[in-house]
Amino acid sequence: MLAELRARARDALEPAHWDYFEGGAGDERTLRANEEAFARVRLVPRVLRATGPRDLRTTLLGTELRAPILVAPTAFHRLAHRDGELATAAGAAAAGAGYVVSMAATTPVEAIAAVAGPWWFQLYLQPDRDFTAALVRRVEAAGCRALVVSVDSPVFGRRERDHRNGFHDLPAGLCCENLRDAAGSVRDIAMDAGLGWAAIGWLRGITGLPIVLKGVLHPADAELAVEHGVSGLIVSNHGGRQLDGAVATADALPAVAKAVGGRLPVLVDGGVRRGADILAALALGADAVLVGRPVLWGLAAGGADGVRLVLDSLAEDLDRVLALAGVRTPAAVPPDLVVSP
Ligand code: FNR
């Protein structure tokens, strides 16, 4: 099903835009490794567990979801479909999935909030703290339920497909609508190699929203994140778009989950394409998954309906594999459901 949508998305998109959505950094080793790591997992199901109907409902940081599935923050949805983030928000809401709005969204958060279910906002902390604080105020006022701070991007990863295609900017008429400053001009997103843990303390001081760090791969950083009072972690390598050669997320997840030891919710993204991948992620220590490119395929192929189809199909697939594995709820997935190869 996803493969068919992917093919339709490819047909629908300009080749340079397809490459932007699909590509990774460098030789795309990490991009490939994410899917390969899930494909390597082997499951050891239990039998005769009398699960009956499964219950996929999941609550994360006070946000209730129909299944442990969220839309990962991805940029520029109006490049994928004319309805852009509005379609993504409507599709995710219809599927009962969480939606993490990217800081590089091409639609204002107020308009997204009008059609969205529960949504979180992804932030790159800007060197201009006043500007960052104003943006936080803006998304709070619009109804955002949590801030997802991407910490894997002190500089941009080198995306060679984009260099080859000369794709560096949004076409005329599109912009990052949430980066308007007080004067109404649109700022560029700045990556900040000066970012340290103090910045997380600063953010905690200016907002009451839960703060989730996205892009943690090392267990020592997971421990530091707990010490710095964050509310959740996302094990992520940015879908292979930042440090090429970085560990696959399914491989990094167990050590991070162990370091966290249940003190915070741990989410994971990168290469989740099947219900069995979600089941594996839960067994490896995650509380939920985020899905990036497949949502973009659904969006490009069919707008809000396409997004809903992707998310509903993943939830249905998870429901089926939970039954086949003899587990009734996501929280009850046991670690011994997976064996190392
Ligand atoms: C991303 N990702 C991303 N992450 C982020 O924190 N802010 C962003 O603006 C973007 N933008 C973005 C654009 C595109 C086209 C892609 C593919 C990815 C990373 C994203 O949130 C997530 O980590 C990965 O996409 C997960 O991997 P899969 O599901 O795409 O394999």
Automatic annotation (TrEMBL):
Record: residues binding FMN: P73, T74, A75, S102, Q122, K214, S236, D269, G270, G271, V272, R273, G292, R293
Entry keywords, A to Z: Flavoprotein, FMN, Oxidoreductase
- GO cellular component, as recorded: cytoplasm
Q: In the UniProt entry, which residues are flagged as the active site?
A: H238 (proton acceptor)
For whether the record's keyword set contains Lipoprotein, the answer is no
| Requisite cofactors | FMN
List, in alphabetical order, the Gene Ontology terms for molecular function in this entry: FMN binding; oxidoreductase activity
Q: Which residue intervals define the domain FMN hydroxy acid dehydrogenase in the entry?
A: 1-341
Q: Which residues bind glyoxylate?
A: Y20, Y124, R159, H238, R241
Stated family: Belongs to the FMN-dependent alpha-hydroxy acid dehydrogenase family.
The protein's name in its UniProt record: Alpha-hydroxy-acid oxidizing enzyme
Organism from which the protein derives? Dactylosporangium matsuzakiense
